Amino acid sequence: MTVESLIFTTKRGSEPVNFEKTSKAYETKRLYSNHCYGRVGCRFYSRIGKGTRPKKAFKVDSGKARFNAAFTFRQVNRQDVKVSGKDTDKGFSMLEYIGKENAGPPLHIHFSQDEVFYVVEGEYRFVVGGEEMTAKAGDTVFLPRNVPHTWIQLTQSGKMLYVLQPAGSFEEFLTNLQSLTAPPTEEELQKIHLAHEMKVLGPPLTL
């Protein structure tokens, strides 16, 4: 089977429905599979990324990163990949953020990814689509794609777990930022965001 011969089958009554191989049909299959995953009669076959998904469970120790993919935000705040997009055929990724300062990202938007943040320690202020909310330990915040958002850490220290779905190229985005030898200009930062299906819309929050 090739990438072009992806087949999606679902049962409608007693007759299976087959989508023909067109780019439009593939997009329909990809999106629909997210909703019917796990239901009886829904099957999604794909060779994309075959061989990258682990064949058994794995554990990432505390303080460690999957595939040693550890990054820093502003060279101070640690971001460790806990579940990589390589593990899920780009289905999702999960990272741990350990903040050591009152900081956060610029106002930005993800064109193709939803995000979920779970606060482990500390307190954070989120601004999502113009709505402001405060999240403390034990709280969960959902950030839908195509909605401008940002956040800032309110306490001196904090920790969050966050998930991106799908994983997209966010890990590559962090790798690009980590490779910079000097703070990027606004133009450089925007270029990096756009290369990974994001866009900077405004400055970060301040206290």
Question: Would you kindly provide a written description of the structure presented here, covering whatever features stand out?
Answer:
- The protein has 207 residues and is of the alpha+beta class.
- It has two domains: 3-45, no CATH class; 66-204, Jelly Rolls, CATH 2.60.120.
- 16% of the residues lie in helices and 39% in strands.
- The protein has three helices and 14 strands.
- It has helices at 23-36, 170-178, 186-195; strands spanning 7-12, 15-18, 42-45, 70-73, 77-83, 93-99, 106-110, 114-121, 123-128, 131-136, 140-143, 149-153, 158-165, 198-204.
- Strands 4-5-6-13-8-11 form a six-stranded antiparallel β-sheet, covered by helices on one side. Strands 2-1-3 form a three-stranded antiparallel β-sheet, with helices on one face.
- A hairpin with a 2-residue loop joins strand 9 and strand 10.
- It is globular.
Question: Which CATH class of the largest domain?
Answer: Mainly Beta
Rg over alpha carbons: 19 Å
Order of helices and strands: EEHEEEEEEEEEEEHHE
What is the overall number of helices?
3
**What's the main sheet like?**
6 strands, antiparallel
As laid out across the biggest beta sheet, the strand order is: 4-5-6-13-8-11
* Beta-strand percentage range: 35-45%
Reported by name, the CATH topology of the largest domain is Jelly Rolls
Relevant CATH superfamily of the largest domain: Jelly Rolls
Contiguous low-pLDDT stretches (5 residues minimum) are 1-49
Using the 3D structure, state the CATH architecture of the largest domain.
Answer: Sandwich
Helicity level: 10-25%
Question: How many β-strand stretches?
Answer: 14
Separation, N- and C-terminal Cα atoms: 55 Å
Principal-axis shape equals: globular
What is the averaged pLDDT score? 83
Computed structural class: alpha+beta
Question: Any idea how many domains?
Answer: 2
